[in-house]
Every structure is written in C-alpha cells, then in structure tokens.
Design brief:
By secondary structure, this protein is mainly beta. It has one domain. The protein has 1 helix and 5 strands. Strands 1, 2, 3, 4 and 5 form a 5-stranded antiparallel beta sheet that branches.
Length: 78
C-alpha cells in the first residue's frame, strides 16, 4: 500500500461480523460473483457497497470514499 498523494486521497472500510450481516440482509437480491468464490457463498452489491457471505469466513462488506470529492468508491477489487 502506498501513501496518498495530493490528488489521490481515498479511504476504504472493511466490515465483518454482525454489522456486515446486517448490511448484507438490508440489500437484495443476491448477484453472481465475478471473483470465483467458494461454493455456498453469496454476494450482494448496491452501487459501491459490496457484501459477501462465505461459509468459511462469515459476512464481510467493503466500501470506500474519495476524500477530496466525498464521493463513494468501491472498497476492494475481488
């Protein structure tokens, strides 16, 4: 990971556990994963908020922001 520059100032958040489960349950429907995740896994996404359920890891969500503009950006790539 590299330090932000004056023109590239982003922050990403990664949420697990109960908060991620609540976020996952608030979004629907499931969508097809483009990342080839394990059997039984589920993916939900709204705009730049992505949540996943994996039997081996439980619930997790990620999202981010461009700190200069305040706009929402994705928190991860697969």
């Amino acid at each position: 990971m590299h330090a932000p520059t004056r023109n590239d100032v982003h922050v990403a958040f990664y949420v697990r556990g109960r908060a991620a489960k609540d976020m996952f349950n608030a979004m629907d429907p499931d969508r097809k994963s483009e990342c080839g995740i394990e059997d039984g896994a589920r993916v939900r996404q709204k705009e730049n908020v992505a949540c996943r359920y994996r039997p081996s890891d439980g619930y997790e969500c990620d999202f981010g922001f461009d700190l200069r503009s305040g706009k929402s950006i994705g928190g991860s790539i697969c």
